Amino acid sequence: MVLCLATALVHVLLVFLHVAPPNPVSQQYSRQVNAWVLPLFEQNWRLFAPDPESVNRQISARTMHTAPDGSVQVSNWFDLTAVDNSAVKHNAFPSHTAQNTLRRAWSSYLETHGGDDQARSPRALMIQRYLTNIAADRISRHGGGIFESVQLRVITVPIAAPAAVGGPGSATATPKPVDTRYLPWWKVDSHGN
User: Fold this and answer.
1) Residues 149, 186: contact at Cβ < 8 Å?
2) By the 8 A CB rule, do 66 and 167 touch?
3) For the chain (length 193 residues), average pLDDT per consecutive 10?
4) pLDDT for the residue 168
């Protein structure tokens, strides 16, 4: 009981220091605060001032397995975004995780890796591992078989601006190109797959 109460108080204090304006205490203990809060308990103000998406992303994954005879078997692409969309569609009370886990993991990956897929910090490695685990877990849950590596493909389709929809009197804008990004093959832990 005392341990639970102490943990709850420490958690509230660390989250408070994370969302509070910069101050000497939060700056002095920023490493400890960030280690506790990120990525699972991250707080931000997007609920009150959301940053609307300007693109649609389809994130897919495929797996690789080396057979006992040495041949390499690569699976077809599995649409991870479709799994999220089906969990939300026609659900009056969709879970926050069904809506945001994959999207937020990808956003964090972009922030920490940039365009060259090189992890340059411990946080970048953690986000890469988090994204890999999301893909591996979802593939395993949908009968993905045995595999040692996973690769992600992200297709980014820009959302047309309202003026570019083509209604009467609107100017026709040049559509932005679709971007397809292939990430490197990443080893996965053998966690039941």
Assistant:
1) yes
2) no
3) 92 87 88 82 62 82 91 93 84 76 89 86 92 92 88 90 56 71 89 46
4) 54
Residue among 102, 41, 94, 79 nearest 155 (CA): 79
Residue 65 pairs in a beta bridge with: 73
| C-alpha to C-alpha distance for 183 and 116, rounded to whole angstroms | 9
Looking at residue 2, what is its pLDDT? 92
Question: Which tokens is 129 given?
Answer: 């591992």
Q: Is 77 in contact with 61 (CB distance < 8 Å)?
A: yes
103/84 Cα distance (integer angstroms): 9
pLDDT in the model for residue 192:
45
The model's pTM is 0.67
- Which of these, 145, 137, 142, 141, lies nearest to 188 by C-alpha position? 137
Picking from 57, 51, 26, the residue whose alpha carbon sits closest to that of residue 131 is: 57
**Domain boundaries in the chain?**
2-37, 55-187
Greatest C-alpha distance within the chain: 67
Residue entry with tokens 């966690």: 191
Cα distance between residue 151 and residue 192, in whole Å:
18
101 neighbors 116 (Cβ within 8 angstroms)? no
**pLDDT at 45 (0 to 100):** 61
